[in-house]
Amino acid sequence: MPVLVDKSTLKKAFSTMAAAKAMATLYEDNFKVVSKYVHATSRGHEAIQIAVGMQLLPQDYAFPYYRDDAMMLGIGMQPYDMMLQLMAKKDDPFSGGRTYYCHPSLRDADKPKIPHQSSATGMQAIPATGAAMGFWYKENVGLDDTTVNEKPVVICSLGDASVTEGEIAEAFQMAALKQLPILYLVQDNGWDISANAAETRAQNAFEYAKGFHGLEAITIDGANFTESYLAIQNVLKTIREERRPFLVHAKVPLLNHHTSGVRMEWYRDDLEEAHSRDPYPVLLKQMIDAEFTLDEIAEIEHAATEKVKRDYEKALKAEDPKPEDLFTHDFAPSPITEEAGERNPEREDKVVMVDCALFAVEELMRKHKECLLYGQDVGGRLGGVFREAATLAQKFGDERVFNTPIQEAFIVGSTVGMSAVGLKPIVEVQFADYIWPGLNQLFTEVSRSCYLSNGKWPVSMILRVPIGAYGSGGPYHSSSVESVLANIRGIKIAYPSNGADLKGLLKAAYYDPNPVVILEHKGLYWSKVKGTDEARTNEPSEDYVLPFGKANVVQEIWEQETKETISVITYGMGVHWALNASSKIKDQVEIIDLRTLNPLDEETILKSVKKTKKCLVITEESINNSFARSLAGMIQEKCFKYLDAPVMTIGSENMPAIPLNSVLEQTMIPSAEKVKAKIEELLAY
After folding, report:
1. Which pLDDT value is given to residue 2?
2. Which residue, 5, 270, 450, 585, is most buried by CB atoms nearer than 10 A?
3. What is the pLDDT of residues 261-276, one digit of tens each?
4. CA angle (128 as vertex; 231, 451 as ends), nearest 5
5. Count of CB atoms within 10 A of residue 641's CB?
6. What are residue 318's phi and psi, to 5 degrees?
7. What are this entry's molecular-function GO terms (predicted)?
8. Maximum CA pair distance of the chain?
9. Model confidence pLDDT, tens digit, residues 336-372
10. What values do phi and psi take at 226, rounded to 5?
11. Confidence at 157, pLDDT banded by 50, 70, 90
12. What's the whole-model pTM score?
């Protein structure tokens, strides 16, 4: 029988497979020790995983899934590395003991790059496709900085059950639409957990991919190493040269438990058939066909098994993280720590808020070729539904400013991959009400990447979100969502009240290596709402930056001996309600504009409240369970002995949605008159 793969490749593959098999056996033999933390092994999937891992190059980007430990060995990771993560040890090279076994994140110079991704099955497809879109962008605008002969590819590894996820369709759609250099490797073992393919899938991944024109798919026996190696070799060569997406559907058996906590004997009725397709004896026969002797094979097996045992004993003795290790890498350090540049230069006319942002983005794009903008309707025909991207596509080209499909999850999650390959994406969700499909990616992938990769992969992105009620926008264009966002740790949140702040915060966000959400009130964009003229400002200079976590004392007062005083703590539209409400009692009302909700400037807030002895927190959100009420609780807790009245809040009525009718809308949301009445109530307390 002809040997289709050279002997050195077969030997390396067999040694790697023997190690993966030995690891699975050792984990099972020491179940009570290693099952402290949940894990899964690659047993049954080894052939296709090793075939892929051995052919990846340092310039490639890989997004493995939680069963890919054989792939990790294939790229050059050692059993010891994997076991440090298995036991959540301090020196776990992927996460420092923060996340599960085979949830890798790697930035080694000599290996493929592995950005962090979750184990939420299928979620990694969008960040992976974002990385491929990053390569597409760099190659189209002349930013291709690779010095190697072979162009990079992205590998996204998936279990077949995950392909039913809606976010997979978003990833496939964009890969096919843009012709991105990505390989979706789908390992099909016929199961998710206890539900099998017949119960849960109308078609397999190979059949599903046919619906995405431009995504070429093949199906192979993923338990046959030689077949897998040659198929992957051909696919990778094609992607490197032709820059288009592929899907490889690999049929494999699952020969171990779904995870250590879900035992196969509880529900599996196909174990005998699955073991008949074990990739290990298949590769063993291929070794014999290649004229390896039985003694040589036994020696390779013995060496792999002994190394696994030694690495296990060493890993058992490795140091656990210390309590103080918990508090590192929630954010990467930002270079913007002080206000800089000219905030209020002399100008002929003041500029509306939406234009301050537009000019900021234009300046950034002119200066930084790695800066790009995408989202729904931001391209050349419209320039955004609020004209917030007007003329940018014409000035910078359709590769840098482009429309996406209606795919909020992709818009948000693709920034993980874009950032990983060295770009700085500015993306938009058209209305705050539309952010919900993107929250999965924002929470699961974007916000946790820096922390769970132990600082290796912060996601540097800006998400712009028009927000708030204005001009009878109705229930799907008027919502406030900051309380939900504030409960996502690992993102920064800005909510400016005027154009100068918006420009300064946008510039600071660009240079911040962390994910930033900027909430921009639609009613302030053009100052068309009565009483919002203060949102218009002289446009700050190009180099103006405003650091996050620095509130602004918009209206400052002295401590009064004879008059009651109050601190109003607010942001966004609330600043204008407060200014108008206090216009006749300015000496009694200090107004603090938070500008950013995370980080929060507690020092400025508490200093003001301790001076005035009373406090009102204003929000446009409904009050119950809100950020504002949480903020009021913090102020009450830390200023209790200084207070002459309870900390009060005012916001929208606690109804499920903002009605379309203008009378009902105004009844629902706060106003200067309502705020004035609340201030007077609190002053008289």
Report:
1. 65
2. 450
3. 888 888 888 888 989 9
4. 135
5. 6
6. -65, 155
7. branched-chain 2-oxo acid dehydrogenase activity
8. 101
9. 999 999 999 998 899 999 999 999 999 999 999 999 9
10. -60, -45
11. very high
12. 0.96
Pick the CATH number of 7-327 from 3.40.50.970, 3.40.1190.20, 2.60.200.20, 3.40.50.150: 3.40.50.970
Residue 684 pLDDT > 70: yes
**61: enclosing H helix or E strand:** strand 61-63
Tokens 């109050």, located at residue: 566
Residues 6+ positions from 140 with CB-CB distance below 8 Å = 399
Q: 3-state DSSP call for residue 649?
A: strand
Which ranges in 93-213 belong to alpha helices (H)?
125-140, 166-178, 197-200, 205-209
Q: Half-sphere exposure of 425 toward its Cβ, with a 13 Å CA cutoff?
A: 30
Give the number of C-alpha atoms closer than 13 A to the C-alpha of residue 380, restricted to the C-beta side.
8
- Which amino acid, residue 538? N
Strands 552-555 and 589-593: antiparallel
Q: Find out whether 229 and 12 touch, Cβ atoms under 8 Å.
A: no
Active site residues: 477
456: its two tokens: 């290796």
| Domain boundaries 552-684, corresponding CATH code | 3.40.50.920
Surface-to-core class of residue 474, CB atoms within 10 Å of its CB (0-12 exposed, 13-18 middle, 19+ buried):
middle
- The CA-atom distances, in angstroms, between 78 and each of 7, 21, 69, 320, 514 are 22, 14, 10, 19, 31
Architecture of the CATH domain 353-535: 3-Layer(aba) Sandwich (3.40)
In one-letter notation, the amino acid at residue 197 is A
The count of other CB atoms within 10 Å of the CB of residue 582 is 22
Confidence label for 668 from pLDDT (cuts 50, 70 and 90): very high
**Using an 8 Å Cβ cutoff, are 229 and 54 in contact?**
yes
Specify the residue for token string 């950005």.
115
Length of the chain, please? 685
HSE toward the beta carbon, residue 81, CA cutoff 13 A: 20
The gap from C-alpha 20 to its chain's centroid, in whole angstroms, comes to 31
Packing angle, helices 279-289 and 7-29, rounded to 10: 150
CB atoms within 10 A of CB 242: 12
- Asked if the domains at 7-327 and 552-684 fall in one CATH topology, the answer is yes
Q: What DSSP string runs through 456-520? A: S----EEEEEEES--SS--TTS----HHHHHTSTT-EEE--SSHHHHHHHHHHHHH-SSEEEEEE
Q: Which runs of consecutive H residues, i.e. helices, occur in 640-671? A: 662-668
484 CB-near residues (< 8 Å, 6+ apart): 439
Whether 135 and 421 have beta carbons less than 8 Å apart is answered as yes
Cβ atoms of 65 and 40 within 8 Å: the answer is: no
Domain limits of the chain? 7-327, 353-535, 552-684
Beta bridge pairs of residue 251: 188, 221
